[in-house]
Design goal:
Blueprint (H helix, E strand, L loop, with lengths): L2 H20 L8 E7 L4 E4 L15 E4 L4 E2 L9 H10 L5 E5 L2 H8 L9 H4 L8 E2 L4 H22 L9 E4 L4 E5 L2 H24 L7 H11 L10
Parallel strand pairs: 6-7
Antiparallel strand pairs: 1-2, 1-5, 2-3, 3-4, 5-8, 7-8
Helix pairs in contact: 1-6, 2-5, 3-6
């Protein structure tokens, strides 16, 4: 595994981290993104507490699946253990984005799932974006970040939710995580999640009794996802 290869992984993670700032999903240091190479079991992630205005692609920290830092003098994001548990639990995921974007965070702080109310939501998420309950006190005090990742994976498995069908969630009192088959896809899902959160808030304020038909939801999601997808160019 040469230096050039590691640099390529760093650059990929750096571009996504800068993109979430550019799209105003992150202010200050309220967020992080990672890119995962599943074949070699390593990921590149933003260093902890480093201002985005000072961030360079060389600063991205390479970490293995046991959380060991490879070839870096900087500490990885404090959320690294959460990313690792998601990568371990969701085998199709190779990119994760965590932000405290305003609209998604509003729903998280209200401990509310983002309901599916229309086709815009259905194009990206095949159902409500779930808001997971608060972590128990002992888990927060013992291994907060690791337990957060475990909670996300276990919730999706217990509810039998396919993580590629609903590629994101909220954490009560916290914020959002999105993921994807690539870091670019995780970034796209983060943008979609924030937009859907905003639209849902205003939609409910106008009509609190919206009932979006499941057959339309199913049609719109299947147009873009799965073996029968036909949206876009072949």
């Amino acid at each position: 595994m040469g230096t050039g290869y590691l640099d390529q992984l760093r650059q990929e993670a750096f571009e996504i981290n800068m993109a979430i700032v550019r799209e105003r999903l992150v202010i200050l240091t309220w967020g992080n993104a990672s890119s995962f190479d599943r074949a070699n079991g390593i990921l590149a992630i933003k260093p902890s507490g480093v201002s985005y205005s000072l961030l360079k692609w060389q600063d991205m920290v390479i970490v293995d699946l046991d959380g060991n830092v490879i070839d870096s003098k900087l500490k990885p994001s404090s959320d690294t253990l959460t990313h690792l548990e998601i990568y371990k639990g969701f085998i199709s995921v190779c990119g994760i984005v965590h932000t405290h974007s305003p609209w998604a965070t509003i729903w998280a702080q209200a401990c509310r799932s983002i309901p599916i109310l229309g086709t815009t939501h259905a194009d990206h998420f095949n159902g409500d974006v779930p808001c997971l309950p608060y972590l128990e006190k002992d888990k927060v005090e013992s291994a907060y970040e690791k337990e957060t990742g475990i909670q996300i994976v276990e919730f999706f498995k217990e509810k039998k939710i396919e993580p590629t069908h609903i590629p994101g969630c909220l954490l009560s009192g916290h914020a959002s995580f999105t993921w994807g088959e690539t870091s670019n896809k995780a970034f796209e899902n983060a943008i979609a999640l924030e937009s859907c959160a905003q639209m849902a808030y205003y939609s409910i304020s106008l009509n609190s009794k919206i009932e979006f038909p499941y057959y339309i939801q199913k049609k719109h999601f299947s147009r873009k996802h799965g073996s029968n997808a036909y949206y876009g160019q072949s």
